[in-house]
Amino acid sequence: MAFLFTILSGLLLLAVPIDAQVYMGEERSSYAFTWVQPLNTTILGQYGHSEPVYPSPRTTGSGEWAEAYEKARNFVTELTLAEKSDMVTGAPGPCVGNIYAIPRLNFSGLCLQDGPVSLRVADYVSVFPSGVTVAASWDKAVMYERNLAMGREFRAKGAHVALAPSVGPMGRCVYSGRNWEGFSPDPYLSGVAMELGIKGLQDAGVQAVAKHLIANEQEIQRNPLYYSNGTVQFEAISSNVDDRTLHELYLWPFANAVHAGVSSVMCSYQRLNGSYACQNSKLLNGLLKDELGFQGYVVSDWYALHAGVDAAEAGMDMDMPGTSRYNRTVVPELGRMSSFFGGNITTGVRNGSLEETRLDDMVTRIMTPYFYLHQDEAYPMVDASSIFLNTFYNQSSWLRDWNITQDTSVRDVRENHAQIIRRHAAESTVLLKNNNALPLNAPRYIGIFGNDAGEGQNGPLNRFGSPDSLEYGTYAVGGGSGAARLTDLVTPQEAIKARASQDGTVVESWLNNPLIAESDVASLWSYQGPDVCLVFLKSWAREVIDRETLQLDWNGTQVVKSVASACNNTIVITHSAGVNVLPFADHPNVTAILLAHYPGQESGNSITDVLYGAVNPSGRLPYTIAYDEADYNAPIVTDIQTTGVDDWQSWFDERLEIDYRYFDAHNIPVRYEFGYGLSYTTFAMFDIMLESTQQLGSISRFPVEEPVAPGGNPELWQTLYNVRVDVTNTGRVRGSAVPQLYLSFPDSTPLGTPPRQLRGFEKVELAPGERRTVAFALIRRDISYWDVVSQEWAIPSGEFVVSAGFSSRDLVVSTNMTPIASTSV
Ligand code: BGC
């Protein structure tokens, strides 16, 4: 059935019900939009429509999971139908998400905890640098070590599942409230960070969850809005993404996650191409489980489920938190029980609406990673402190069901992680400008300026995600479920003072307001004024809301102007969620700029190490800093009329052109480009060499069909070329270079291909004068585009340009490669 729905911008849209099988229980149809008048669709592919893909593929235990899979299957045979339904449904408990234990089978239950920087609802845990910070390290060791250490803490606190890492949002839009939880708008950089982060967590014995699948690129209207009678006023926003863009940008890092053996994937709140992500069969059955060969379980984002049997058939495996948003038992006005799963799954199987084999597959998928990571063997009990810290559920509703010893001893799991965090955040700090101002050399008098330098005034900042930007106090982490309780926070002010006292330096501090109010700033200070002025500024972001501006908070730009008006050695340091425009960057008195993003608990120590040169900065921008806010494309939403129930739409019609891909495609000058960052030393690059691992002429356009393994067709992950460049340290101090590899695809690639795409990076530490060879491996996926016609990754014919350099706009050496000659197609 299809009917004429609306006329929009001169283009006809069709609305067709998809995923609309009617079952007993909660049926729901989603309406998807299809362009009738094609927008050059043969070249670019249609979008806005999500086709049905059924049945849900069953796990086979492929990859490294064969043994664990057998154990999981045996486990399932022991379960009653009710137990199986419990296993796929969250329940009240000590953690943010809980699956009941089955003591009869020695199953401890599952404890799922947030989030990407720390175990959020806990005491005596460490707070690590956030995703964007780690992306700025461009350091693979940092990406792994951070999550290995974090995973050890989750495990020691008894959490089986870490709701991390996040790559949705990836960063399509600079304003998205959760970009800082993830890594970078570049899918390659994000993909590497995902893969290593997942390995880190899982090597510590904790299940990782790649979230949020997919295109959760805006916070606004992420959930449906209901009238008080329970009917829907507005459906959640629909991210409408074409097939090629989905594969080459947003699904790309999830493919890395699956390839790394991620235990679970969390589906996102909003709709994808008209159908809720958590019941979108094309996404879950088609892309994730079939194409990518995902063997683990799909967990819903919290309350993201809007159907029971429909969602299970579409590929959902676990409903979280399993209790209703409105009420923990029955919701009279909605006439439904607390969860779309739970008892409804039991009923569905009994009355024949849901195949029991699907339910068995759901439980098998949940139990395989549990056995794979040996969580059945002496896993620590959930820490008793969770009983008191967890405010999600009333204790009386769960305490008797959980085997928790209520001792009063504190389980401090921080080990030596403060040192790791300090080093990681310092190595992730990006130096954008340096007119010989840094490193500091025993200054006589330091002025510290700005609200971001010191302590908050109302206890620890961001305890559980403060709702708003707070005027005073440094930002070490953002807000929402990705926030963290800062058991220990070292502020820049205290760390600088401690370091400065070694040189007998005078240190004085000022907050934003007096600086803005005072026209003669020099009248505020003693002696002849500071010989160095450190201005600490910040920018807040959190879950649920998107950022409204790219300016620094609390009049940050004005503070820089005021200080720089009186101090000719003004150094700006920001703690920010991501992109800020920096209108003061060319001011002659602004002598250095450092971006530290959200560095975690050792913030002050990390930045002091960089300021004084104990650590030579080696961070690079994981995104582009434009001259002006208006220079960015990809708005949060594109088409809102808010009169109809389906009106919230976000058309990703910039397609592949996000971040540097857009600026490069349109030759737009930028202030600091993707991949840019300075060091206290300098580097040079020479001699690019390229060699194929295959015999001449033997590379095929499409990968040979092979049984799908986690990550998709294994052929896609095969190295086809190795590239080498030489890098040398031409300066006078030890430092780390970040050589980067970019590909320009041949002209035969379909329209819309970005001019350059990152396909390799390494961080290499060099002593002065040292020269080293750096190698990059190009796998089949790296040199392919997603061909919407054949539904395959295809290597285009013709010549690629392979360039290496120190940023996306500082390409130093280049060569060519022709995997497939133009004539052979
Ligand atoms: C967030 C998830 C988080 C979950 C549990 C949701 O609101 O989107 O990222 O893991 O809550 O706290």
TrEMBL record:
Q: Which UniProt keywords apply?
A: Carbohydrate metabolism, Cellulose degradation, Glycoprotein, Glycosidase, Hydrolase, Polysaccharide degradation, Secreted, Signal
The reaction(s) catalysed by this protein are:
Hydrolysis of terminal, non-reducing beta-D-glucosyl residues with release of beta-D-glucose
Residue ranges annotated for the Fibronectin type III-like domain, each copy included: 737-808
- Asked whether the UniProt record includes Glycoprotein among its keywords, one would answer yes
EC id: 3.2.1.21
- Its top-level enzyme class, in one word, is hydrolase
| Secretion signal, residue range per the UniProt entry | 1-20
Show the GO MF annotations.
hydrolase activity
Which Pfam families is this protein grouped with? Fn3-like, Glyco_hydro_3, Glyco_hydro_3_C
Q: In which pathway does it act?
A: Glycan metabolism; cellulose degradation
| Compartments, as annotated in UniProt | Secreted
Function of the protein:
Beta-glucosidases are one of a number of cellulolytic enzymes involved in the degradation of cellulosic biomass. Catalyzes the last step releasing glucose from the inhibitory cellobiose.
Name the family. Belongs to the glycosyl hydrolase 3 family.
UniProt-recorded name of the protein: Probable beta-glucosidase G
